[in-house]
């Protein structure tokens, strides 16, 4: 009996391209991780353009992809923490502090040592007048995420200014400036006008690990 070309092609595929179940599973997990990271990247691009609704859609999709992938738990937790934090930023940008705060806390449930979420939650606390709590969060961020130290120090300077401690605020800003860790003209201006210090929320890079 003759076989159609389609049937023959299927037989050749089965015979010649068989892979082990482990290799197939690894490939599926790798694709799931890539999909979640791509969603983060697209969301960040929309956020930079000011399209917050589209950014939220992509961040939510990244959270779902990370949650349902079954890939390495630490990797997926990292992606979820980044997505939740960036999702919070989109709400904070519209003045929705309660929603933003809730999302930052969700990110910290996923990863309690995620410095970016700690910093951004501290910013919300500052706006609410909860200065001591903000300072505590920022010290924790400094201890767990040295890569973003200049930003955390600037945020901490803002917290001390809110607390009436201008000298400590200036000391922290000079530490950043003397370390060559930030734009000199920006910090020089901030030193001259401490009342104007207002760090922006951090947006993690799509491929940035929280730890």
What do you see in this structure?
73% of the residues lie in helices and 0% in strands. α8 runs antiparallel to α9. The radius of gyration is 23 Å and the shape is elongated. It has one domain: Tetratricopeptide repeat domain (Serine Threonine Protein Phosphatase 5, Tetratricopeptide repeat, Alpha Horseshoe). The N and C termini lie far apart (62 Å). It is mainly alpha-helical.
The ordered string of helix (H) and strand (E) elements is HHHHHHHHHH
Q: Provide a count of the helices.
A: 10
Kindly give the count of domains: 1
User: Which bin fits the share of residues in helices?
Assistant: over 70%
CATH names the topology as Serine Threonine Protein Phosphatase 5, Tetratricopeptide repeat
Q: Based on helices, strands and strand pairing, what is the structural class?
A: mainly alpha
How much strand content do the residues show? under 5%
Index terms:
single chain, disordered C terminus, 10 helices, mainly alpha
């Amino acid at each position: 009996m003759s076989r159609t070309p389609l049937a023959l092609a299927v037989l050749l595929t089965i015979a010649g391209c068989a892979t082990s179940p482990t290799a197939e599973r690894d490939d599926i997990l790798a694709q799931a991780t890539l999909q979640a990271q791509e969603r983060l990247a697209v969301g960040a691009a929309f956020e930079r353009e000011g399209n917050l609704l589209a950014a939220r859609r992509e961040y939510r999709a990244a959270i779902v992809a990370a949650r349902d992938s079954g890939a390495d738990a630490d990797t997926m937790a990292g992606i979820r923490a980044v997505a939740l934090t960036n999702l919070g930023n989109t709400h904070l940008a519209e003045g929705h502090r309660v929603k933003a705060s809730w999302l930052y806390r969700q990110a910290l449930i996923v990863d309690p040592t995620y410095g970016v979420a700690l910093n951004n939650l501290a910013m919300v606390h500052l706006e609410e007048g909860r200065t001591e709590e903000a300072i505590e969060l920022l010290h924790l961020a400094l201890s767990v995420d040295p890569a973003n130290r200049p930003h955390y120090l600037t945020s901490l300077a803002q917290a001390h200014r809110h607390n009436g401690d201008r000298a400590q605020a200036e000391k922290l800003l000079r530490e950043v400036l003397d370390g060559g860790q930030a734009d000199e003209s920006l910090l020089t201006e901030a030193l001259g006008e401490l009342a104007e210090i207002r760090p922006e929320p951090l947006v993690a890079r799509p491929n940035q690990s929280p730890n």
